Amino acid sequence: MKILNLYSGIGGNRKLWGDEHEITAVEYIPEIARIYGDFFPKDKVVVADAHQYLLEHYKEFDFIWSSPPCPSHSRVRKATEHQNAPIFPDMKLYEEILFLQGYFKGKWVVENVISWYAPLIPPNKVADHFFWTNFIVRDFSGGGRNHAGKFKDLQITKGLDISMYKGVDKIKLLRNCVEPELGKYILDLAINPINLQKSIF
Length: 201
What we know:
- This protein is 34% helix and 16% strand.
- The chain is built from 8 helices and 7 strands.
- Strands 3-2-1-4-5-7-6 form a 7-stranded mixed β-sheet, sandwiched between helices.
């Protein structure tokens, strides 16, 4: 398949996808895009605004994964509002869900944190994430996010060693990663939903 991996970060969701697909990753921050490229040298890595890239290139792909920025939706940030000034929830999340629902003919998934407000479009809750998809997703028993873990623990949970990199917030990068096993599970459901769900449930 031709896969578009938007807001790719360092590629937690992509780690177990293998190399049989043609994958394009879009990441806005060059230093983070470089780390992704080191981990996945066969992927095409584009440094660009993922939201705009989706609008301009969606027809080129069979499967689209999007993980828009989550801080404005996060329960953790809301709970620490004494440390963080209030911000508007970023509506690009819902713009992309509606856009994909209305225009994209392939399989798609939008991932985000469990929000501090009731979601405007009902999602599936899977392993401490919200997922909006156009295919059936059931719960996943592969473990949680370990979101509050220390650096070494997060590296183990995510299976990505970024200890040698400098000039980036390593804890934040790892916390933003979707667990690789969950990323593979979601992709496998998109490719072959009936057989996978029969084998698991």
